[in-house]
Structure formats: C-alpha cells, structure tokens
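In the design runs reported in the main text, the only information available to the sequence generator was the tokenized backbone. The following block is the verbatim input for one such run; it is reproduced so that readers can re-run the procedure and compare outputs position by position.
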C-alpha cells in the first residue's frame, strides 16, 4: 500500500489554492522544482509525471519491450508501447 508521500503517475500539484485554471503565461513564469519529475500544464492544471526508469530497471524494461515487439511483429498481433 502506498503512503501519502509516494508519488503516483500524473498527480495534480498544487502550489497554492487557485480560484481559476493556470494560464500558459503563469506556467512559463513559474519555477519548476529540480526534483527529477517532469511537469506539464494540462487544462489549466499543473501535473507532475514520474521520471522515466533508469539503471537496471530501465535496462530490463528495454529488453522486455524489444522481445515483446519482435514477437508482436512476427505474429502480427499489434504494437508495443512503453
């Protein structure tokens, strides 16, 4: 079970309570924290996405995707997205 401090995929980030959506100009002027996460503005709300996996996890993911993609192409079963 995740605790309250565990980040999840695309979770809202609230720097303050806004009565209205954030504008593109406000987003461009804001300082993104340098915490390794990626930030984006979606429908006026700043969202944060976890960084891509790296190290051994990223290597394992790449090998798995490569093998699945080869199988999918050989049998014409679809596409693999990671």
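Verbatim output:
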């Amino acid at each position: 079970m995740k605790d309250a401090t565990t980040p999840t995929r695309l979770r809202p980030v609230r720097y303050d309570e806004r009565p209205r959506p954030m504008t593109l100009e406000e987003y461009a002027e804001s300082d993104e924290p340098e915490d390794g996460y990626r930030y984006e503005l979606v429908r006026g709300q700043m969202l944060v996405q976890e960084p891509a996996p790296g190290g051994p996890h990223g290597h394992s993911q790449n090998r798995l995707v490569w093998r699945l993609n080869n199988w999918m192409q050989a049998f014409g079963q679809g596409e693999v997205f990671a």
